[in-house]
C-alpha cells in the first residue's frame, strides 16, 4: 500500500476501545493478544462484496453495520464474548466522506460491544469488506449447532419478520400507506441488533443455538442437520411485532415472513426440559418465545394450533439439500 | 451463499491438517480454538485483489502461495508458530480447474507449516482473497519492530534481490540469455519461503524483527521509525545469490536490487552485542549475514566499504514520510 491509500489508515486510528488483552494493535507485522487462562476463542469470518451483498451506492453506515453486526451475531450464537476484529477492505478510490461515515458507524458498534480493531489491510479494488471477529468463551462452553436432543424445546428471541418486510419497502415491492411504518421497517432491516448478552446467558442452559441470518426455517434446518434430529414448529407461536401486524393484514403472510425472514440476528436455540426454569431467569431482560420441540424424525414439521401445514417455505429445500 | 457457490466448499474440505487445538472447525456459527496456557496469539490480515496485486489470468497456484506465504511471513517476523487461518474469497464464477489448483497449493503450504483452515466465507464477486492467519507465542516473547537499540547489529537471512530480478523477467523488462536462469528467478519471485523456524529461533535473541515484503530499505525503515533510531548499512555486505550475480553484471545494480527487492520473505532483525554468540547457534541451519549497525541518528546511512553513498533508493522516501 502506498500513496493516498496509506491515508486511509487515519480513519481507522480513531477507535476509543483499548482492551487490556490487546498487547499490540496496528503498526507491527502482527497484532498480539493475550487470551485469558482457560478460555477458548470463537472465530468467524464474513465477506461482503458490492453488487452481491449491497448496492454500490448503499449508505456506508448500513454497510459498516451489516458487516460487523452479522459477524457479531455469529459470536452471539456461540455464546462468545466479542473481543477483537481484523478487517480487509478494498475501495475503488479514497472517498473521505464515505470513509468518515463508514468508520464512525463501525467504531460506534465495535465500542458498544467492547470489540477492538487489531489490524487489517486497506487496498485499492472493487468495494468489499472482509471481517474476522474473535470472541472469548470459557473452556468447553461454546454453543454449537450439534447439541439438540429429542424432546428439547425450541425458542427464538425477539420477533421475526420485520427485516423481510423492510426489504420489501427498500425494493418497493410492497409499501404501507403509513410512511412512518415503512421507515421503521427499513430501519429494522438495516440495523438489527445481535443478541450478544442473550447468547452468553444461554451458555449453561441451551443445548444448541444459531443466529437467524438466512431465515428461521433455513437456520433451524442447520441445527437439525448437525444434531441429526427433526422439529415440530407451531407457526401460531412465532413472535410477530406490532409493526409487522400493521404491515401485513393476513395472518398466513405474517407467519410466512417470520419463517423466512433473514438477517434478523435473533437467536434460535434449544433447551432441555430440565433447564426451562433457569431460562426464565437467564433471559429475564430479553423477549423470547417457545415455538416448538425437537423430534426424533429428520423432518421439519409445520403446524398451526396442532393442525399440520403443507407450506413450501423458502429455505426448507435448502435444508433438505444440506442434510 | 446458495446455488453453485455452495459447491465451492467441497474444495476447502480437503485439508489433511487437523490440529489438536482446533475444537471446532468449519460448519458452525464460529470456529473454536483452544490456545495453550500462557500463550499469546499473533494475528495478521492480508488482502489480495485481482488487478491490484496480481493479474486476473495469474496462475492460481501463484496467487494461493502469495496470499498465504505473505501472511505466514508476518507471523515469522513476530517469532510466532503458525496455527490457524480464516479465508474470505470472492470469485467471479465457479471455475473447477482454477479452484482445484488454488486449493491444492494452498493446503500444501498450510500443511507444511502446520496451519489449519478453520473457516471463512466464499462469495460471488471480483476475484479477491483476504486471509487472517494466527500463530502462537510464549507470553511476552513476540518480536516487534520497536525494540532496536543503538549499537545493535543488523542482520538479514538468506539472499536479497532475486524476487525483483524475477519480476523483471515476468514483466519482460530485463531477461538473461540463459533461459534456465530466467525461469529460476521467476520461480524465486513466486514461491519465496517464509522464515518461520528462524523467527521462532530468534525469540530470545533478536531485539527487533520484520519480514522483507516491501524491500530492505523500506522495511528496515519501519524498525528505525518504531524504535526511534537510525542505521548504517554497508551495501558490500548485502547477501547476493549466484543467480543474481549471473543476472546483473554491475555490482552497483545487484546491491540496489538487494536494497529494494520486495516479497523476499527474508527476515531483517537486530541483535544486541551480548547475544551474537547465541545467534550463531540458534540459526545454525539458516544462512544469515550482518549488514550493519543501529545508530543514534534517525537516518539510514548507506556505505560501501566505509565510504558513504548518496543513493536515492526506492522505499527510502516512503520511510522518510512515515517517520
UniProtKB/TrEMBL annotation, chains A, B:
Catalysed reaction equations from the record: thiamine phosphate + ATP = thiamine diphosphate + ADP
Residue numbers binding Mg(2+) 1: 45-46, 121
Segments forming domain PurM-like N-terminal: 27-136
Binding site for Mg(2+) 4: 29, 44, 74
InterPro entries the UniProt entry points to: PurM-like_C_dom, PurM-like_C_sf, PurM-like_N, PurM-like_N_sf, ThiL-like
Coiled coil: none
Molecular-function annotations in GO: ATP binding; magnesium ion binding; thiamine-phosphate kinase activity
Binding site for ATP: 120-121, 145, 213
Annotated metabolic or biological route of this protein: Cofactor biosynthesis; thiamine diphosphate biosynthesis; thiamine diphosphate from thiamine phosphate: step 1/1
Residues where Mg(2+) 3 binds: 29, 74, 211
Top-rank lineage group of the source organism: Bacteria
Record's keyword terms, sorted: ATP-binding, Kinase, Magnesium, Metal-binding, Nucleotide-binding, Thiamine biosynthesis, Transferase
Residues holding Mg(2+) 5: 214
Protein's UniProt keywords contain ATP-binding: yes
GO BP field: thiamine biosynthetic process; thiamine diphosphate biosynthetic process
EC number(s) stated in the UniProt entry for this protein: 2.7.4.16
Keyword Transcription: no
Location of the PurM-like C-terminal domain: 149-302
Pfam families: AIRS, AIRS_C
Miscellaneous: Reaction mechanism of ThiL seems to utilize a direct, inline transfer of the gamma-phosphate of ATP to TMP rather than a phosphorylated enzyme intermediate.
Family: Belongs to the thiamine-monophosphate kinase family.
Task of the protein: Catalyzes the ATP-dependent phosphorylation of thiamine-monophosphate (TMP) to form thiamine-pyrophosphate (TPP), the active form of vitamin B1.
Record's protein name: Thiamine-monophosphate kinase
Amino acid at each position: 500500500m502506498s500513496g493516498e491509500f496509506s491515508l486511509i489508515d487515519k480513519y481507522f486510528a480513531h477507535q476509543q476501545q483499548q482492551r487490556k488483552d490487546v498487547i499490540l494493535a496496528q503498526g507491527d507485522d502482527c497484532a498480539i493478544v493475550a487470551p485469558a487462562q482457560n478460555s477458548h476463542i470463537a472465530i468467524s469470518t464474513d465477506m461482503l462484496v458490492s453488487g452481491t451483498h449491497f448496492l454500490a451506492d448503499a449508505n456506508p453506515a448500513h454497510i459498516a453495520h451489516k458487516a460487523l453486526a452479522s459477524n457479531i451475531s455469529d459470536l452471539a450464537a456461540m455464546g462468545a464474548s466479542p473481543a477483537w476484529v481484523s478487517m480487509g477492505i478494498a475501495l475503488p478510490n479514497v472517498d473521505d466522506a464515505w470513509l468518515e461515515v463508514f468508520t464512525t458507524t463501525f467504531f460506534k458498534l465495535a465500542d458498544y460491544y467492547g470489540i477492538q480493531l487489531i489490524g487489517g489491510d486497506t487496498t485499492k479494488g472493487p468495494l468489499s469488506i472482509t471481517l474476522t471477529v474473535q470472541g472469548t468463551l470459557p473452556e468447553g462452553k461454546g454453543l454449537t449447532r450439534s447439541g439438540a436432543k429429542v424432546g428439547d424445546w425450541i425458542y427464538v428471541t425477539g420477533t421475526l419478520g420485520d427485516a423481510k418486510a423492510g426489504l420489501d419497502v427498500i425494493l418497493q415491492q410492497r409499501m404501507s400507506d403509513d410512511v412512518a411504518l415503512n421507515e421503521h421497517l427499513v430501519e429494522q432491516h438495516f440495523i438489527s441488533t445481535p443478541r450478544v448478552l442473550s447468547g452468553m446467558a444461554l451458555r449453561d442452559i441451551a443445548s444448541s443455538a444459531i443466529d437467524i441470518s438466512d431465515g428461521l426455517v433455513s437456520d433451524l434446518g442447520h441445527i437439525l442437520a448437525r444434531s441429526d434430529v427433526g422439529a415440530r414448529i407451531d407457526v401460531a407461536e412465532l413472535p410477530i411485532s406490532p409493526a409487522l401486524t400493521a404491515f401485513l393484514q393476513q395472518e398466513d403472510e405474517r407467519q410466512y415472513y417470520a419463517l423466512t425472514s433473514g438477517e434478523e440476528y435473533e437467536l434460535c436455540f434449544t433447551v432441555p426440559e430440565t433447564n426451562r426454569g433457569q431460562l426464565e431467569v437467564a433471559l429475564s431482560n430479553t423477549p423470547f418465545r417457545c415455538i416448538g420441540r425437537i423430534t426424533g424424525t429428520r423432518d421439519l414439521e409445520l403446524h398451526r394450533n396442532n393442525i399440520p401445514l403443507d407450506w413450501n417455505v423458502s429455505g426448507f429445500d435448502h435444508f433438505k439439500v444440506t442434510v
